[in-house]
Specification:
The protein folds into 2 domains: 141 residues, Urease, subunit C, domain 1; 283 residues, TIM Barrel, CATH 3.20.20. A hairpin with a 2-residue loop joins strand 18 and strand 19. It is globular and about 70 Å long. By secondary structure, it is of the alpha/beta class. It contains 12 helices and 19 strands. The chain has an 8-stranded mixed β-sheet with strand order 9-10-11-12-13-14-15-16. Strands 4-3-8-17-18-19 form a 6-stranded mixed β-sheet, with no helix packed on it.
Length: 459
């Protein structure tokens, strides 16, 4: 159980390190009685927990003594963090202890590292369960038309996806859920990983619109760019032409009226246009589109982005890169290299790191960040690239991405350096609630750990 009590400041990690049944050290820090797993909420019974049950709200949370990495490069020693009502209410150093209403309920985190909850970019979490089973996929719209801007990922989210608990126990608390397919795939939703919360899992629906260049349309790079420019032009003028269209006094439009309506927040700069592009020519074309239509832009992929880092930096356009991409997956990514993120950051480009391995392995975010650090990206820049960086890229940094008063209380307590493979979360909070450590994987592991006992119980 969590080393937590209502009546005293209790240190996390007072126990000895646990080991697996093979005798090798488990990932993480303290002995919990369930090796290699996130501990359970105090007072909870492992036998009574549902997989990924909605986090158990303990009321106001007070954390003291850890080393807090805020997410924007700021480090606070002997930190004090208070959470209530799903938001951060106090964030500061040792001097902030006096602002705690009752310090006796605080959790002592001395020796631990505290970070914002991790933010996974460009995922299909909640839309895909099994890649090769079509009935478990809701990530794309089955149509030949390349423009699907009205396709809204938030309306298809499965808040009971078995993939959610597996990611959250490893520190992922927020994700951008992106539809797939076509030239314009649809609306991107930002979710907090609250398993089972069907009404509230989407923190910001329609935060961005996903588009693609390259051979996304008609098998031609030029055709893709021309079509995207045509659609954006029609969408920008559509409000003034709507009545004429309804009276059949307008030329044929490049997309359905619902799709053109769905693009309107882009022109009010209320949503971000994300463009998947790897080749330099496509990246530069996306920059031109953003300038011509006055759009907020983020580049996804960007294998060759380091070649035009100066232009990206001048435009302050964030680039979402895979830090493990070191070999070309095609002619669009011939310039792939492991120090892409470091080169972009050095030039002043806002860098965001995506998770190696895709939606089923969002928990590999810290591993990918560690690889980026090993290839020249500064440590704090890597942390920003998986917390505040993606929040900024998707336009939700006022509520997410860093540990600051008034923001959503997504937070992770680590046994050590989160980019070290030997470290693991010892506590995860989503919207201020302490998350249970039960997943489908831990239940299966525990069920079959002792085969003799399993045989006796199932005679």
């Amino acid at each position: 159980m969590w080393p937590f009590t209502r009546n005293a400041v209790v240190p996390i990690g007072a126990g000895k390190r646990s080991s697996s049944s093979t005798g090798s050290p488990a990932r993480g820090g303290v002995e919990t009685g369930n090796e290699g797993r996130l501990p359970l909420v105090a007072g909870s019974d492992p036998d009574e927990q549902a997989v990924g049950e909605v986090p158990f709200q303990l009321g106001p949370q007070h954390l003291v003594g850890g080393e807090l990495h805020v997410g924007d490069g700021t480090i606070i020693k002997e930190a004090v963090v208070a959470m209530d009502g799903g938001k951060f209410t106090i964030v500061g150093g040792a001097e902030a202890r006096g602002r705690l209403l009752d310090e006796s309920t605080a959790i002592d985190l001395r020796g631990k590292v505290i970070t914002p909850g991790l933010f996974a970019s460009d995922t299909q979490l909640g839309l895909v369960e099994i890649d090769l089973e079509a009935v478990t996929r809701d990530d794309g719209k089955d149509t030949e038309h390349p423009v699907r801007a009205a396709h809204d990922a938030a309306t298809a989210l499965n808040a009971e996806s078995g993939l959610i608990p597996i990611q959250v126990v490893e520190g992922v608390t927020t994700a951008a859920v992106v539809p797939t397919g076509g030239l314009i795939s649809g609306q991107i939703a930002i979710i907090d990983l609250v398993h089972g919360d069907h009404r509230g899992i989407a923190a910001q629906p329609r935060a961005a619109v996903a588009a693609h260049l390259g051979h996304a349309h008609a098998g031609s790079r030029a055709a893709s760019l021309a079509k995207l420019r045509e659609v954006l032009g029609d969408a920008r003028s559509f409000p003034a032409r709507r009545q004429a269209y309804d009276r059949a006094q307008s030329r044929e439009l490049s997309a359905h009226p619902l799709d053109l309506e769905a693009l309107q927040p882009l022109f009010r700069r209320q949503a971000v246009l994300t463009v998947t592009a790897h080749r330099v020519s496509d990246i530069l074309a996306a920059l031109d589109l953003a300038r011509d239509f006055d759009l907020r832009l983020a580049i996804v992929g960007g294998a060759d982005a380091w070649k035009v880092a100066d232009e990206l930096a001048r435009a302050r356009v964030p680039v979402i890169v895979d830090p493990t991409l070191n070999l070309p997956g095609g002619f669009d990514s011939m310039g792939a290299r492991l120090d892409n993120a470091a080169l972009l950051q050095r030039a002043g480009v806002p860098v965001v790191l995506s998770a190696p391995g895709g939606t089923h392995n969002l928990r590999s975010l810290t591993q990918g960040a560690g690889i980026a650090v090993a290839n020249g990206l500064p440590w704090e820049a890597a942390l920003t690239a998986i917390t505040l960086g993606p929040a900024r890229a998707y336009g939700v940094d006022k509520t997410h991405g860093s540990v600051a008063v008034g923001k959503v209380a997504n937070l992770v307590v680590w046994s050590g350096d989160p980019f070290e493979f030997s470290s693991a979360p010892v506590q995860v909070y989503v919207r201020g609630a302490l998350v249970r450590g039960t997943t489908r994987q831990t239940l299966l592991r525990d069920r079959y750990r002792d085969l003799e006992q399993f045989k006796r119980e199932n005679k």
